Amino acid sequence: QVQVVESGGGLVQAGGSLRLSCAASGRTFSIYNMGWFRQPPGKEREWLATITWSGGSTNYADSVKGRFTISKDNAKNTVYLQMNSLKPEDTAVYYCRATVTWGSDYWGQGTQVTVSS
């Protein structure tokens, strides 16, 4: 089992920045990659970015490429999402997901990000 806990959400004005954190615990040695997703009010959950746990390769959705950066600190078992130039449409609950080598996914409880205009 792997547990993930997100933090760092909050209220920010448009154009501002936030950094989200996702702390993993448990069988972290089994993690293959970590990803960030978001779910705006009334909409489906959307994939944002992924980083491989060992090599650090990254991938981004077009909607956030150039504004959001995913990174990791293996020593702290933590993945980050740096979000810059935030827009009101970035308002959503942001989730972290750990994918382990045997294919299972583990989700956090989410953290709310609200961007005011």
Structure notes:
The chain is an all-beta fold and 117 residues long. Helix content is 0%, strand content 58%. The chain has no helices and eleven strands. Strands 2, 4, 5, 6, 9, 10 and 11 form a seven-stranded mixed β-sheet that branches. It is globular, with a radius of gyration of 13 Å. The chain starts with a strand and ends with a strand.
In summary, what is this structure?
The chain is mainly beta. The chain contains no helices and 11 strands.
Overall structural class, as computed from helix and strand content, comes to mainly beta
N- to C-terminal separation?
A: 40 Å
Main sheet properties:
7 strands, mixed
Low-confidence stretches: none
In sequence order, what are the helices and strands, one letter per element? Answer: EEEEEEEEEEE
Rg (CA only): 13 Å
Beta-strand residue fraction? over 45%
pLDDT averaged over residues: 96
Shape descriptor: globular
How many β-strand stretches?
11
Which bin fits the share of residues in helices?
under 10%
Helix count, DSSP H or I runs of 4 or more residues: 0
